[in-house]
Specification:
By secondary structure, the protein is an alpha/beta fold. The chain is built from eleven helices and twelve strands. It has a domain of 218 residues: Rossmann fold. Helix 4 links the parallel strand 5 and strand 6. Helix 2 crosses helix 3 and helix 7 crosses helix 11. The relative contact order is 0.14.
Length: 330
């Protein structure tokens, strides 16, 4: 039987990948940290092993005997007081895991990057895997970490013939967002009618289960050294918030804000986060800079080469709201 290692398996996307593997009859091994919330894995027939992306010995043990590795784990936050820790997990951790997989003789590695590593375009233009981008154009620690991690992957593919296929999920939503992610927090707040205003930006929304299916398709059909955007529907933020409130029966946002007007609020929020370790700001200066471009992408390459077939955003958001309600988070 095929054995697959999934890093970040207890998380939002990782647990969805585990479930897709089990549906296909693949044996799954889940790499988790000792502090991980394992609720997403409850009742699933998976082997849970403890480790950390900064601990090479634990990665070597986790990869031993595996046929395929899905490297889903990442430090995904839009605010970090210590950027070096995020870089260590997302960049060096990716290199260490791929090297461990190579040493273990793993046949295929699927690396979960993000559209954050790709170019964001102004004025609602739609980008793809080939839209040019440089590090100087990347805003925010998380985006920089994913961009640099992709460069590490490219180097390992070229220099060590690492059998890596990269996937770039857009903004996944749906069941299992226990943390929740920044997008999940926005859905929760909007569903409560607690977001009265918006800025003119946009994002690509995709169901988490479709993202998970895209991972499996990348393993089965993806070309080594290639990247595939896993996205669905491009929505302006105003339209997305309106859709959320319509589904949840809440008040839609009415006020349009200029991002520059919110910069003092963001600065105060960041200062508060530095003083209060458990406080995470809803808006930062980097997110406001990002909002000046739309994160619009198309997944034509994944559809054409992998057979990727994502559902509409309404279904993804409906499933997310339904799950938040069952978890008493909404």
């Amino acid at each position: 039987m095929t054995l697959a290692l999934v890093t970040g398996a207890a998380g939002f996307v990782g647990s969805a990948v585990v479930k897709k593997l089990l549906e296909r009859g693949v044996e799954a091994r889940a790499l988790a940290r000792p502090t991980s919330d394992l609720r997403n894995l409850e009742g699933l027939p998976v082997e849970v092993v403890m480790g950390d992306l900064t601990d090479p010995a634990s990665l070597a043990a986790a990869c031993r005997g595996c046929d395929v590795v899905f490297h889903v784990a990442a430090d995904y936050r839009l605010w970090v007081p210590d950027p070096d820790r995020m870089m260590a997990a997302n960049v060096q951790g990716t290199r260490l895991l791929i090297e461990a997989a190579l040493d273990a003789g793993v046949q295929r590695i699927v690396y979960t990057s993000s559209v954050a590593a790709l170019a964001a375009m102004p004025n609602g233009e739609i980008a793809d895997e080939t839209t040019p981008i440089t590090l100087e154009n990347v805003v925010g620690t998380y985006k920089r970490s994913k961009y640099l991690a992709e460069r590490e992957v490219d180097r390992l593919v070229e220099e060590k013939q690492a059998p890596v296929v990269t996937v770039n999920p857009a903004a996944p939503v749906g069941p299992g967002d226990i943390k929740p992610t920044p997008t999940g927090r926005m859905i929760l707040q909007a569903a409560k009618g607690a977001i009265p205003a918006y800025v003119d930006t946009g994002l690509n929304v995709v169901h988490v289960d479709d993202v998970a299916e895209g991972h499996i398709l990348a393993w089965e059909r993806g070309r080594i050294g290639e990247r595939y955007i896993l996205g669905s529907e491009n929505l302006y933020l105003r339209d997305m918030l309106t859709l959320i409130t319509e589904i949840a029966g809440a008040r839609p946002p009415r006020i349009r804000l200029n991002p520059d007007m919110l910069m003092p609020v963001a600065a105060i929020s960041e200062l508060t986060a530095r003083l209060l370790p458990n406080f995470e700001p809803m808006v930062t200066r980097d997110t406001l800079k990002m909002s000046k471009k739309t994160m619009f992408f198309h997944a034509d390459k994944a559809k054409r080469e992998l057979g990727f077939a994502p559902r509409e955003a309404r279904e993804a958001i409906s499933d997310a709201i339904r799950w938040f309600r069952t978890m008493n988070m909404l």
